[in-house]
Amino acid sequence: MALPILQSLAVFAATWIAWRVLRRLVRGDPFAPLRGPPSPSYITGCMKLLFSNTGMAYHEHLVKTYGRAFRLPGMFGETLLYVHDPKAMHHLVVKDTHIYEESDDFLLTNKNVFGKGLLATIGDDHRRQRKMLTPAFSINHMREMTPTFYGIIHKLRESITQQVVPGGEVEEIDLLSWMTRTALELIGQGGFGYSFDTLEHDAPEHPYSAAIKNYLSALNTPSLLLTRLFLSPRLWELGSPKFRRAVINAIPWKGLHELRDLVDIMDGTAVEIFESSKRALNDSESDLSKRIGGGKDVMSALLKANMTASEEDRMPDDELLAQISTFIFAGMDTTSNGLARILHLLSEHQEVQDKLRQEVSEAYEKQDGDLDYDTLNSLAYLDAVCRESLRLHPPAFAVLREAKVDGVLPLGRPIITTDGREVSEIFVPKGTKIFLSIHHCNREEEIWGPDAAEWKPERWMAPLPSSVADARVPGIYSNMMTFLGGGRACIGFKFSQLEMKVVLSLLVQRFKFAPSGKKVVWLNNGIIQPSTEDSPLTAMGHKKLHLPLNVSFAKSA
């Protein structure tokens, strides 16, 4: 069976490539007048450089050379747009979302991996799901979940204490591993009333934790990434799910099979969580308050709301199930790596760490116990550290959009074309992929000032320059694009902020973090993740992800 399938796929791929090349030759390049880099390869264009996990320097070169909006050579002569102009971003994520949507690759990959959840739907389906989910992420609900979060982080703190305790000496600890385990447990209990991890320092890693941690690295290997970007929108639509599974099994491609196995682990766990939540809700004798998280988790709230929703708003079981892996994927990797980045920054800036420790220590002494939601969010310097870290180092470097129909993209600042003309808008033909750089919009000097590329939490302790408000960046959070904006903004950004603040306040109060001496490098695997220069390769062939920091007891502890 394998040989006929492979032959059919080869014919399909060759036909698809030939059609793409012919279409380009017939219609020409609509972005030819725009400035941009030369193509190093007709087959792959700039895609290998653009999506390389070590390619951040290439992005810096592009933006420094070509500005806020420029063309990029894609695969087989295709041209992409690269944008970080705030006005253009407003049209892309807020005003003209009927024109610019998630790319077919993004939607179909998420649909096949996670199911028909928030990351795999557009239009009315997406709005209906978001309407049902939004109350579960309200501030009032975050207030109710705060004690659950504290219970988890106290376990984390005690486990790290056990690693440091011999003689109170400095210990090198992989903080990424702890942040990953903790973020999964927070989303498990806070999201689904489910425990993944005891957070004991010698406990084995939950299979789901390993799977989700390796998922992005596996998905974004150069060969898989280029295949997805160019062919997968059509491959995902071939035949039934059973047929596509047979195709995947038949292809002699180790990386694809490893990805399949990771997805199987995630899917199996999601089904287990969903069935457990449904049983608890349907059991008339079940006391939800005795469930993990006290029945305050997002899934319990969603299931209860769904039971009383109108027919047109109600979500079927397959959509409810899809939200589980969607939430874990969207919330775990971004938060864990965002926390790892903050701890790394604090280790390199001891004066900031000391000032933060003083603020949180004084707050806990006054409270004589855990802080409630509002008190935690009133800590100005903790808030400044989080905001500045998320501005300068957004966990998601960029997002892609695709023009579903012809459109015109206005620019906040005119650009100069190759023939010397000044233009204030760009015609965008249907099918164009647009690369939105969150990273560079957050670091724009015209918005944030000449020190925009520096980590300065103090900038948030005084009124921001008027240029920040004047730029009208369309982000949902603090005039930055970290959590996006518009109808596809991160629905769980308050959940993520609460996680970060509880973790940082309890850990910094007790521990001092310092560099380990190993050079930390940050890799762009779709999410920015830490490793070290001399890090070994994993069994899957990816650079090992870890953040080794020296940890000791803080003097005030």
TrEMBL record:
Localization per record: Membrane
Pfam families according to UniProt: p450
One cellular-component annotation, GO: membrane
Main location: membrane
Family: Belongs to the cytochrome P450 family.
Pathway the protein takes part in: Secondary metabolite biosynthesis; terpenoid biosynthesis
Cofactor(s) the record lists: heme
UniProt-listed PANTHER family: CYTOCHROME P450, CYTOCHROME P450 12A4, MITOCHONDRIAL-RELATED
Sequence positions that bind heme: C490
Keywords from the UniProt entry: Heme, Iron, Membrane, Metal-binding, Monooxygenase, Oxidoreductase, Transmembrane, Transmembrane helix
Highest taxon of source: Eukaryota
Protein name in the entry: Cytochrome P450
An MF annotation (GO) of this entry: oxidoreductase activity, acting on paired donors, with incorporation or reduction of molecular oxygen
